[in-house]
Design a protein that fits this description.
127 residues; globular
Length: 127
């Protein structure tokens, strides 16, 4: 069982930056593939970014490519989402997720692929 806790959300002006953190309870966090998703009011949860267990493979939604970067520090059991050049359409509740992958280089870009979820952290971007 893995417990995830997001932090780092807040209110920022368009063009600004935020770094989200997701702390995991599992000492074996390095064995998990991770991902970030977001959900805006009235919309479905959507994929943002994913990273494989070994950190070698990543994937991003087209809407965030070149602006967001996913990373992980397994020694700290933490995954990050660096968000630059934020836009009002990035406003949403951001969730991190984790699962045991089928291989070390596999990432997952679909919410149904994940077993563990955090409670979310709110990001609001003003125009």
């Amino acid at each position: 069982q893995v417990q995830l806790a997001e932090s780092g959300g807040g209110l920022v002006q368009a063009g600004g930056s935020l770094r989200l953190s997701c702390a995991a309870s599992a000492r074996t966090f390095s064995m998990y593939a991770v991902g970030w998703f977001r959900q805006a009011p009235g919309k479905e949860r959507e994929f943002v970014a994913a990273m494989s267990r070994n950190g070698a493979s990543t994937n991003y939604a087209d809407s965030v490519k070149g602006r967001f970067t996913i990373s992980r520090n397994n020694a700290k059991n933490t995954v990050y989402l660096q968000m630059n050049n934020l836009r009002p359409e990035d406003t949403a509740l951001y969730y991190c997720a984790a699962r045991r992958p089928v291989s070390s280089g596999t990432y997952y870009s679909v919410a149904l692929g994940y077993d563990y979820w955090g409670q979310g952290t709110q990001v609001t971007v003003s125009s």
